From TrEMBL:
Lineage: Bacteria, Pseudomonadati, Pseudomonadota, Gammaproteobacteria, Enterobacterales
Record InterPro entries: SBP
Species the sequence originates in: Pantoea nemavictus
Domain of life: Bacteria
Keywords, ordered alphabetically: Signal, Transport
Database matches in SUPFAM superfamilies: Periplasmic binding protein-like II
Cited PANTHER family: MALTOSE-BINDING PERIPLASMIC PROTEIN, MALTOSE_MALTODEXTRIN-BINDING PERIPLASMIC PROTEIN
Similarity section: Belongs to the bacterial solute-binding protein 1 family.
Protein known as: Sugar ABC transporter substrate-binding protein
Endpoints of the signal sequence: 1-24
Length: 423
């Protein structure tokens, strides 16, 4: 009897093993932020996973970013549910609010690396609905690039710590003349982040809305933050040309020495490091407002599973492999994100003044990440059209700051209240 039971158990175990191998052979991974070098690195990591798990086959599907959202939606509608998907923060909220993403909390409890993740990593994993619906692989976090040479020429020895010092330093550096200005202002497309960060810092809160869905942008502190930027431009703290500057212009303005301070993410570091001596610049935390806190905008991306996925027990080990400390560091260094592990700043790659500001923001409670309300249907139009056009009018003196902000608040309140009505 014992022998027969053992034989049955063996047959069952072999059957389960074969079934698991069969399932493993069909794992699919969808990448949505694609470029040839990036895809090559991801493929190399997947090949390493396959080597460690003989019999496992992984299909990597790389979707061009411009059509990625629509193409992934088509895959899901047709029943082609990927096992692992690269999940940008702007999609996390949409999919999570529709209850489509797997709750990863039970799996995080049993993963031995969870305790090594930074608090902000876990907070972003849970940002959509309070439950972890992704394992972030890195952050795009705003911090303050500052030109040490220009500061020294202006008689300044350190970067500004407060918003008041920031405005004062910009004016002082602009007095150097020769076309030099203190701040690399992004007055063209993509300038929304700076307006929202400065308004939040002066208002002392990262909240965009109250419980009724009313925008907080008309609160007195928020208006002061917007006025600070308007005054900086109109009083010469930023170049007159910067009313039209986009990403390329502000980055090149910084590394060419036309402007001394730049708020940007780590991906700007690639071009700046190639054009400036390391000793000539550093990166500091964003200046704090009257509350003693700053609210640097944060973007992040990670790995998720859909609830509809049929192989989640096989997909999770792949996510943890891609997210382990060694792979995460290699990935972060390559794609220009900040890594997710405590103590990552001790890696020699990050042991430079160029990274100090970002790690302080990640580890200091006085720096609270500001996440944009990307769940709003009209956010894209607000971000790319409304802010650009109306802020340019105000900077050029064709409108006043309070009227501009009231228009923004009216638009966002309507969008938020419409969204609340669907919840």
């Amino acid at each position: 009897m014992t022998t027969r039971f053992a034989l049955k158990a063996l047959v069952l175990a072999v059957g389960l093993s074969a079934a698991m191998s069969s399932l493993a052979a069909k794992l699919t991974v969808v990448e949505v932020i694609t470029s040839p070098p990036r895809t090559a690195l991801l493929q190399k990591m997947l090949d390493e996973y396959k080597t460690q798990h003989p019999g496992t086959e992984i299909e990597l599907i790389s979707l061009p970013w411009g059509q990625a959202f629509e193409k992934l939606g088509t895959m899901l509608q047709s029943g082609q549910v990927p096992d692992v998907v690269e999940m940008p923060d702007t999609w996390q909220g949409l999919y999570a609010s529709n209850n489509m993403l797997e709750d990863l909390e039970p799996r995080l409890k049993s993963w031995d690396a969870t305790s090594q993740l930074t608090d902000k990593t876990l907070a972003m994993a849970r940002a959509a609905n309070g439950k972890a619906t992704m394992v972030p692989y890195g952050f795009y976090l705003r911090a303050l690039f500052w030109n040490k040479k220009l500061f020294q020429q202006a008689g300044l020895s350190e970067p500004p710590k407060t918003m008041e010092e920031f405005a004062s330093d910009a004016q002082r550096i602009s007095q150097l003349g020769n076309g030099i200005s203190g701040y690399c202002m992004r007055g063209g497309v993509g300038g929304t982040n700076a307006w929202m960060m400065f308004m939040a810092a002066m208002n002392g809160s990262p909240e965009f809305f109250d419980k009724q869905g009313n925008s907080t942008l008309t609160q007195p502190g928020a208006i002061k933050g917007a006025q600070l930027l308007v005054d900086m431009y109109q009083k010469g703290g930023a170049s007159k040309d910067s009313v039209n500057w986009g990403f390329n212009e502000i980055v090149s303005g910084f590394y060419s020495g036309k402007c001394a301070m730049l708020d940007q993410d780590p991906d700007a570091l690639i071009a700046i490091k190639n054009s400036m001596a390391a000793d000539d610049f550093a990166v500091a935390p964003m200046p704090v407002g009257p509350s003693g806190k700053a609210f640097p905008t944060i973007g992040y991306t990670g790995w998720s599973m859909f609830k509809q996925g049929k192989q989640k027990d096989l997909a999770w080990p792949l996510i943890t492999f891609l997210s382990d400390k060694t792979n995460n560091l290699a990935w972060s260094k390559f794609v220009g994100t900040l890594p997710i592990y405590k103590g990552a700043e001790q890696d020699p790659f990050y042991q430079t003044p160029q990274f100090a500001g970002w790690f302080k923001e990640l580890n200091d409670p006085n720096y609270v990440p500001l996440t944009m309300p990307t769940h709003l249907k009209g956010w894209g139009y607000f971000n790319s059209v409304i802010v650009k056009e109306s802020s340019q009018e105000t900077l050029l003196g064709e409108n006043d700051t309070e009227s501009m902000v009231k228009d923004w608040a009216k638009y966002l309140s309507k969008e938020q209240q419409a969204w609340l009505a669907t919840q």
